[in-house]
């Protein structure tokens, strides 16, 4: 089931939440709406679901115009951040609630609930109440309840936002596996770039009610379409064009900030004639990766990431003089991206 958003705008008073949004979510894909608070991602999700009506434009689900159609008739599964489970119902009753409302025969409800308990790996816990489960287990129950009615599409609004970091990471991997099993068109909202990169087939980066870029995680990270995307997706060093970097003679004429990913910054012990001097000011051990914070030129700060083998070979120490050279530098203006 595909989702097509055509020229959708939405205002809340004088605030423009969505500004002429155009988007196609292909059948059976898992798409992330990613952006900071106030970017419009939750408003777009709610508009797709029917919880909000657009001021202009249309929403098509499986080729049919759903604009203005009552949410109860859209056959959409919606999962909220805070589970929204019924405290007085057991896990089985929560999962089967939508089927019961639709007057599904009890034998079919029992069978479907058992299948979903198995799918979410909570077999044997069906007779417990939500308060007897962990946060991660409750969110899996919320997902099962949304899937029970066999929706056309599944929408998730910050589904793991209320959970701690370790549980979020576990559920991200579980959601990806679940999606690959059930093959349902899914859209989820997140402000967590790592979550979007790990789970989604495609990422929609939003900012101030507009779409900045749509692409796969690799496309978004490697080929950002704007300075906003470059800054929002992944770590990056941002320096003025007059900072002492390799190929400075090329960058001097740009007049814009330049962007260098920390992993695209090489460190040497000797000057090869094309590198810039730097001083090691801080070394941070991040397990398999080392983060070196450096000072270049007139007190410009820049960060480099290197693996443990490279770090050990260099023998880096505080206040050591080293030489750096970026393997790739980017600069943006209103119409193009410059890569060096």
Q: What does this protein look like?
A:
With about 350 residues, the chain is of the alpha+beta class. Helices cover about 30% and strands about 30% of the residues. The protein is built from 10 helices and 19 strands. The strands form 4 sheets. The chain has a 6-stranded mixed sheet, sandwiched between helices. Strands 13-17-14-15-16 form a 5-stranded antiparallel sheet. A hairpin with a 2-residue loop joins strand 14 and strand 15 (about 290-295). Helix 2 packs across helix 3. The two termini are about 40 Å apart. The model has no long low-confidence stretch (mean pLDDT about 90).
Secondary structure layout:
Blueprint: E1 3-12, E2 15-25, E3 30-34, H1 41-49, E4 56-61, E5 64-65, E6 76-79, H2 91-101, H3 106-119, H4 135-148, E7 153-157, H5 165-182, E8 185-190, H6 193-199, E9 202-207, E10 210-215, H7 217-222, H8 227-232, E11 237-239, H9 248-251, E12 258-260, E13 265-268, E14 276-286, E15 289-296, E16 300-307, H10 308-314, E17 321-326, E18 330-332, E19 337-339
Parallel strand pairs: 3-8, 3-9, 6-7, 7-8
Antiparallel strand pairs: 1-2, 1-4, 4-5, 9-10, 11-12, 12-18, 13-17, 14-15, 14-17, 15-16, 18-19
Helix pairs in contact: 2-3, 2-4, 3-4
